[in-house]
Design a protein that fits this description.
Layout (H helix, E strand, L loop, with lengths): L4 E7 L4 E2 H12 L3 E8 L7 H18 L6 E2 L15 E4 L2 H8 L5 E4 L5 H6 L5 E6 L15 H4 L4 E9 L6 E10 L4 H24 L7 E3 L15 H24 L4 E7 L11 E3 L5 E11 L2 E10 L4 E9 L4 E8 L6 E8 L2 E8 L4 E9 L3 E10 L2 E10 L2 E9 L9 E7 L8 E2 L6 E2 L6 E7 L2 E7 L11 E10 L2 E10 L9 E7 L3 E7 L1
Parallel strand pairs: 1-3, 1-6, 3-5, 6-7
Antiparallel strand pairs: 2-4, 7-8, 8-9, 9-10, 11-12, 11-31, 13-14, 14-15, 15-16, 17-18, 18-19, 19-20, 21-22, 22-23, 23-24, 23-25, 26-27, 27-28, 28-29, 30-31
Helix pairs in contact: 1-6
Length: 525
């Protein structure tokens, strides 16, 4: 491959997101990339019906755009946002310009939407085209805007993939894919995906530059891939969407009137495989507090349960600890408190010392505390990472290495339920943490977020939270046995699925931990 990659951007003949412009500018600044031209796809034929659909759709979206961070840029002003040292060629895609474009010796076309015209363009470039494919072929209406049908159908996840279309090859390959939790309304759902679009497109382009592209599987082409998508839904679907928004508003008002929901912690004295939720012991929530994210540990012939202790008035959590037995559960006190919110008090032992790895996402770091006087006195031992949006991190030893499992948003955004990343070191405190070669190893909010761990002899089971539409972190959990773990491979298989219906009136569950003698879980009421 030559040192300089000549690229074009294929853009829809409509408004363009600011994120798309950021990706164009990233390519323009990259010394290994020559940004040759922008190619505008044909505009759809105007009609009175399309005008009415668009007008109604813009009216519906007005309240949503008030909260949106996603800026849309008109085609007429787009060039003023692009910072390119060389004169940038602009082409409208038509039969006349098609021949001119084909003679530009472009190495790679980059498209941010699937479109039938890409198939023709990719055959006249050296490497073909990469396409950000955001259309789910399993959904019924292929013409609606991307990210809309998932909201209307209340799907748990919104999927995406990055496709590689090679020249003179009828096959299409997936080089990146993942999914995000579907948000309750269209603008938020679109924003959540597009804010991450640049990161994964840049990652794919960098791999092409390094000749390290990874083909994950062949993409099964459907009619969806050759449709030119509308920017607004059909009138019927717009009406259905209005009913959806009304229902969403009424449910949120009802929840507000009913008062704040609270998490609770339950305990089972025995092996995790024999848990009978109906025969568990519940820890009483303190007044105006709720408890969640329990971890149990035995020390000096006593058993303890560390929990997130959330103060509803302060909107802030601390780590509290309870001494537990089958006869009695008593609170010992607050084990750890910071100026920022703490939760998920993961515990592990190393070199005969006890460490805690609480979630400190509000402080944008991953930190480890060492026990000074167990269980109430702790000191900060190490900050593993700073300026990172990470939640529910866990550390354990396996195969002569220490492993850090963490849910990280790569752009420091709010969604931390979609990607599971792994790091490894020869020592948790003194060692250098290196990233797994296939991060994120899981890219699906149905199981990616950590919800606890079970270490049983030589077997390790990761608990994965299930995110479902309309419920944050309360869709139940899966217990997954880790089958393969090394710096280049990861595989886990589910052995148990727990739905949040084990108590009458239960509204959710997202955490489970067992040390072999005692199992702890949380649930939402």
């Amino acid at each position: 491959m030559s040192d300089i990659l000549k690229v074009s951007f294929i853009l829809p003949h409509e408004d363009c997101s600011k994120n798309s412009v950021d990706l164009i500018n990233w390519c323009a600044k990259n010394q290994k990339i020559d940004l040759v031209c922008l190619i505008w796809l044909p505009r759809k034929t105007s009609s009175l019906k399309r005008f009415l659909k668009n007008s109604l759709w813009q009216l519906i979206l007005c309240p949503e755009r008030y909260r949106s961070k996603l800026n849309l840029i008109k085609k007429e002003t787009l060039l003023s946002y692009i910072k390119c040292d060389e004169q940038l060629l602009i082409y409208e895609y038509n039969n006349c310009n098609k021949e001119i474009i084909n003679k530009l010796d472009i190495d790679l076309h980059i498209a941010l939407d699937p479109n039938a015209n890409i198939i023709s363009l990719k055959n006249h470039s050296r490497l073909g085209a990469i396409v950000f494919n955001n259309k789910n072929p399993l959904l019924i209406n292929n013409n609606n805007p991307s990210f809309f049908d998932e909201v209307l159908s209340q799907k748990n996840i919104t999927q995406f993939s990055i496709l590689l279309l090679q020249p003179n090859n009828n096959k299409t390959f997936v080089i990146e894919e993942g999914a995000f939790p579907t948000h309750g309304y269209f603008t938020a759902n679109r924003e959540n995906v597009l804010l991450r679009q640049n990161f994964y497109m840049q990652k794919s382009i960098e791999r092409i530059l390094e000749n390290k592209i990874i083909i994950k599987r062949e993409h099964i082409t459907t009619d969806t891939d050759t449709h030119n998508l509308d920017q607004f839904p059909s009138l019927t679907d717009q009406c259905r969407y209005c009913f959806h928004l009304t229902g969403l508003l009424l449910r949120r008002l009802a929840a507000l009137i009913a008062g704040e929901q609270s998490w609770n912690v339950g305990l089972h004295f025995g092996d995790w495989k024999s848990v009978d939720f109906q025969k568990t012991i519940l820890i009483q929530n303190p007044k105006q507090h709720f408890l969640a994210d329990p971890f149990v540990i035995d020390h000096d012939d006593k058993s303890y349960c560390f929990v997130e202790d959330y103060d509803m008035k302060k909107s802030k959590g601390v780590i509290s600890v309870y001494e537990i037995s089958e006869e009695k559960v008593s609170k010992i006190g607050v084990a750890l408190e910071e100026k920022f919110h703490l939760s998920f008090p993961y515990l592990f032992k190393c070199d005969s010392k006890i460490y805690m790895l609480p979630e400190s996402c509000c402080n944008k770091d991953i930190r480890i505390y060492e026990s000074v006087e167990f269980p109430l006195k702790w000191k900060l031992a190490r900050v593993i990472a700073s300026d990172v949006s990470a939640v529910d991190s866990m550390i354990f030893q396996q195969n002569n290495l220490w492993w850090l499992f963490s849910n990280i948003n790569p752009i420091n955004g709010r969604d931390t339920c979609s990607e599971l990343s792994i790091f490894y070191a020869d020592h948790p405190i003194a060692g250098e943490w290196l990233p797994h070669s296939k991060n994120p190893v899981i890219f699906n909010p149905l199981s990616a977020r950590n919800g606890g761990i079970i270490i049983e002899n030589n077997a390790i089971y990761r608990v994965g939270q299930k995110q479902i539409f309309g419920t944050y972190g309360g869709g139940g959990f899966s217990i997954n046995k880790i089958i393969e773990l090394d710096p280049n491979n990861y595989r886990e298989d589910p052995v148990l699925i727990v739905n949040p219906d084990f108590f009458k009136g239960n509204k959710g569950a997202h955490h489970f931990h067992s040390n072999g003698n005692i199992s702890a879980f949380d649930f939402l009421t």
